[in-house]
Design a protein that fits this description.
753 residues; alpha+beta; six-stranded mixed sheet; calcium; flat
């Protein structure tokens, strides 16, 4: 490892202590040491004359910015900071370094950070212990494991030249209901003609050795056993493998434990089924390489197992069948630096599984290979000073390795100025305290800013009388407590709000407000009265003396029509209004207002022709030849109005009106623009031609209508003529030429003519 102050990869370690800090002003710290333990931002003002009348000793403790604002010199603010020193940095071989870091750390202060560098060693020694389930279901697996020793030794030579291997087996607790306890089943738990060995909990078959042939020989002598339930007692075996270092032969090197099974596992609490209620004690109980206390102690819990595996730097590889992959993957998440591999039904792939799992457990950081250097950023912080402020030691090491970093924590629990304290100082009322860091630290039983009282004298009537203003009834104006005849003002929920004064009759939060802001946000409140900032006045500092807000576009204050009061224009003429008195709803426009005066002075005409000299001399008149010579707005740094007006003869005249440097200027085009008279002949000719054309058009329309009417009548006649069918007798207009008359009869005689 290598210790430095740069950063690359973050690993945060928090030194957790009991207690929780609070805001500086609320902590009621009575000494500098108490103050700096509140929070990182808290400081103590050691200026002897810092406190005002009525302020308690704890008012010296405040956040750094507040102390500066309260006029405490930076040199007199106690705010010690932590540091870190590399005390020892020694190479141990294998590209690893042993480091001791000493850190001065302030409780509730800033974290102390240093960098740790780790490089995975080449040819690092490895101890591998193969722990196998020998229940009956693993019968075919045992055959494939018998040659594991030499084959695995050969494969591991690619990784390290210093490799050792061991072997152990497990079945189950030797009590009901896990196994059958009948005499016959205790000798041979298997049914039928199967020859099985007696059940056992855990057996260490072979200590770690570098001889693969010994592994093959002893493993080949092993026999399958049996039990009744499906979960196995593997946790008992793992616990013994972890804690029995001497029996197993573990070295201080990389330790790998391969756990091979095709079943689940029992854990803490399951022992009650067999009447076992004592928790696992986590100690070694091997006699003649056999676990002898399985009937006495319950299975270990997962947390207990994790602790022991971590304490002994053992990395676990779970080689399990596909069926139990989900269970052991969940278990892997609880055990640091463990891995899970899928075991074939007959364990034929066990060597590949071990190699792959070893590479996985060794490369927790992605893309990191042997020889690559990894940096960790270690950050340590303390929540509270330990008892008697004794140093504490933290050890940091990677799982699976024995090399470590030792961090010695020295806690900053007092200020440097405390070392210069004056015990039994005369400044502390006849030596009743130690004068340190600008204040008295009272002896036991003494109180007061100067330790002038004992605790028994605090509530006496004589002393209370000194805390009543003008012999009134309220003690410390009901805003404080009378301590030793002196008012110590109460603290508010808001640390920024403070009571002060000899009788706590002043405060900094009951001043006049403007826009819901204390002193309008433009001053500070002292003893209930606003002290305004520069350029502000008024009881609430809401009156600005700045006149820039009253400047009109023409550069005048309120357009010359009012006064600027508190940054706002007060128009003297009531007909004007607006931010700068520029608006006059009842006034004519600028052009209409000056039209008559411009007309009389430039052209000696208009309604004010006779009174021109008297009424129209308020501006300077300048004549120009044409409109192009009039001033343009883009050329001026003052307001300018362009005007176009008409006189009584319908002639147009053009001018501009402006106020420059309090001088009113009028530029006018010297020639009127009158409309030309009408041309009579074209007008008359046009009118006559129009009348003629209109008459012709009307005649043509009438003629066209008559032609259309005649054609319709003629067509109707022709149609009736074709449909006529009569002769002379039936002719309705035929009249016979013969007339017959009858004379009057005379004697019934008739005469014919």
């Amino acid at each position: 490892f290598n210790c430095s102050t740069s950063s690359f990869m973050v690993l945060r370690l928090c030194w957790l202590m009991v207690g929780e800090g609070s805001i500086c002003i609320k902590a009621n710290a009575q000494s500098c040491g108490e103050c700096i333990q509140v929070a990182e931002t808290c400081g103590w003002c050691s200026d002897q004359n810092f406190l005002t009348v009525g302020e308690s000793k704890s008012a010296r403790c405040d956040d750094l910015e507040s102390l500066k604002k309260r006029s405490c010199a930076v040199a007199q603010i106690e705010n010690p900071r932590g540091s870190i020193v590399v005390d020892k940095d020694t190479s141990l071989g294998f590209n690893v370094r042993f480091v001791i870091c000493k850190s001065a750390i302030r409780p509730e202060g800033e974290p102390q950070t240093f960098e740790l560098k780790f490089k995975r060693a080449e040819d690092y020694p490895i101890d591998l212990y193969y722990l196998m389930d020998l229940s009956y279901s693993m019968k075919d697996d045992l055959e494939n494991v018998k040659n594991l020793g030499t084959d695995l030794m050969r494969e591991m030579q690619e990784i390290t030249s210093d490799f050792r291997i061991g072997f152990g087996s497990f079945v189950e607790k030797t009590v009901m209901p896990y196994i059958s306890t009948t005499p016959a089943r205790l000798l041979n738990p298997c049914t039928g003609s199967q020859n099985c060995t007696s059940p056992f909990s855990y057996k260490n078959v072979l200590n770690l050795t570098n001889n693969g042939d010994d592994f093959n020989q002893l493993v080949s002598q092993q026999q399958i056993s049996g039990n009744l339930d499906s979960p196995e007692g593997g946790f008992d075996a793992i616990m013994q493998v972890a804690v029995c270092e001497g029996h197993i032969g573990w070295r201080n090197v990389t330790r790998l434990l391969v756990f091979s099974t095709d079943a689940g596992f029992h854990f803490a609490g399951d022992g009650k089924l067999g009447g076992i209620v004592l928790p696992n004690d986590g100690k070694c109980h091997l006699e003649n390489n056999m676990y002898t206390m399985s009937h006495y102690y319950d299975y270990p819990s997962i947390a207990h197992l994790v602790q022991k595996l971590s304490d002994h730097n053992i990395q676990t590889i779970f080689a399990v069948t596909e069926e139990f992959q989900p269970v052991y993957k969940e278990l892997k998440n609880l055990i640091p630096k463990s891995a899970v591999g899928t075991l074939s039904s007959n364990s034929s792939n066990v060597i590949k599984l071990i190699i792959d799992a070893y590479n996985l457990t060794s490369e927790k950081c992605s893309n990191i290979s042997i020889g690559d250097e990894v940096s960790f950023k270690i950050s340590i912080e303390s929540q509270k000073c330990p008892l008697h402020s004794q140093p504490e030691v933290i050890k940091i090491k990677p799982l699976g390795f024995t090399e470590e970093v030792e961090v010695v924590l020295n806690f900053i629990c007092n200020c440097q100025c405390a070392a210069k304290g004056e015990p039994k100082s005369e400044k502390c009322h006849e030596g009743n305290g130690t004068f340190e860091c600008g204040a008295c630290k009272c002896n036991e039983g003494r109180i007061g800013r100067l330790c002038e009282c004992s605790k028994d004298e605090v509530r006496t009537e004589d002393l209370d009388a000194n805390c009543r203003k003008d012999n009134g009834t309220d003690i410390c104006s009901n805003n404080g407590d009378c301590v030793c005849g002196t008012c110590e003002c109460k603290k508010r929920e808001n640390p920024a709000e403070v009571y002060s004064g000899k009788y706590c009759d002043c405060d900094n939060f009951n001043c006049d407000r403007s826009n819901n802001r204390l002193c309008g946000g433009h001053g500070r409140c002292e003893c209930r009265k606003c002290i305004c900032d520069a350029n502000y006045t008024g009881s609430a500092c809401d009156c600005s003396l700045e006149t820039s807000t009253c400047l009109a576009k023409n550069g005048q204050i309120c357009n010359g029509r009012g006064t600027c009061e508190c940054g706002i224009c007060k128009c003297t003429n009531p007909k004007f209004q607006g931010p700068t008195c520029e608006i006059c709803p009842t006034c004519p426009g600028v052009c209409a207002e000056h039209k008559d005066c411009v007309q009389c002075r430039a052209f000696e005409a208009g309604e004010k022709k006779d009174t021109c000299e008297r009424d129209c001399s308020y501006f300077v008149l300048i004549k120009v030849k044409d409109r192009d010579r009039l001033p343009q707005p883009t050329d001026q740094s003052f307001p300018l109005t362009h005007c176009k007006e008409r006189d009584a003869n319908d002639c147009w005249f053009y001018y501009t009106y402006a106020i420059r440097n309090d001088t009113k200027e009028v530029y006018v085009v010297e020639n009127l623009e009158c409309p030309a008279g009408p041309d009579i002949i074209p007008i008359v000719a046009g009118v006559v031609a129009g009348i003629v054309l209109i008459g012709l058009a009307l005649l043509l329309i009438w003629k066209l209508l008559m032609i259309i009417h005649d054609r319709r009548e003629f067509a109707k006649f022709e149609k009736e003529k074709m449909n006529a069918k009569w002769d002379t007798q039936g002719n309705p207009i035929y009249k016979s030429p013969i007339n017959q008359f009858q004379n009057p009869s005379y004697g019934n005689k008739s005469t014919a003519l």
